[in-house]
Amino acid sequence: MPSSIPEHAVSYLREKNVPDLMEYMLQELLQEQPEPSGIFPAALSEEDFLIAGPPAGGKGTQCEGIVERFGVVHISTGDLLRAEVKAGSPEGQQADEFMKSGGLVPDSLIIAMVKNRLNQPDVREKGWLLDGFPRTKAQAQALQEAGIIPQVMVLLEVPDDVLVERIEGRRNDPITGKVYHIKFNPPPADDKELLERLEQRKDDTREAMVSRLATYHKNCDDILSFYTHVLFKTDGNRDKKTVGADVTKAIEARMPK
Question: Phosphoprotein as a keyword (predicted)?
Fold first, then answer.
């Protein structure tokens, strides 16, 4: 195999018989010799990452640093879902129907959106950073079956009690949209108007957070089992710059030389 592929990736590909599969596909391609079409990627990026962690674990902050350092395209399923709904795409229209009825958007629909986004020219050229996806074993299985495998999966680990404290203390300014924290980032004590209008989101409570964390922990091990060969775990309960430096170092160490 090409020397530019990391050894851990080579082992994984051999384990899954990918070389034999690729040889078979190449033979079929040479035999059929189809006309060029959109199925042939214009470029294959070597910078494909996945970041995971619990709610309020700091993924958003670290995503900003990864995008700035490596120039990849940040893909959040929440943002992607809203964009598809706004654009009125077939997938977006279906998702909108589920959300309006109070139901969950099916995995199959979300996965279709993710796969479509990953096939866009900017992503194929620059690489991608999947943020908080997959969230379930079924989603991880679907990505693997589609051949969507990150070079690095970053997992931010933060104790539950710290996460609950982060969430419980959050307060939103409904006018500016700015988010404060009564302990870690308190609003100006002399701004009485601001203090009076600050709100706590209904899902920023201890009860809601405990429920979200239970769901996260229930799915976490199953998801990680798909990415043991590319997994990097780091302590997210530290200064964001320290965490960011560790994440950058880990990604650089796993990229082709």
Answer: no
The tens digit of pLDDT for each residue in 3-35 reads: 456 676 677 777 777 777 777 677 766 767 665
State how far the Cα of 70 lies from the Cα of 72, in Å rounded to an integer: 6
Neighbours of 235 (CB within 10 A): 12
Q: Is 254 a catalytic residue?
A: no
Q: Print the SS3 string covering 120-168.
A: CHHHHHHCEEEECCCCCHHHHHHHHHCCCCCCEEEEEECCHHHHHHHHH
Collapse the DSSP code of 66 into the 3-class scheme (helix H, G, I; strand E, B; otherwise coil) and give the result.
helix
CATH of the domain at 149: 3.40.50.300
Catalytic residue among 212, 233, 238, 254: 212
Residue 1, in any domain of the structure: no
> Which listed residue (82, 115, 124, 135) is catalytic?
135
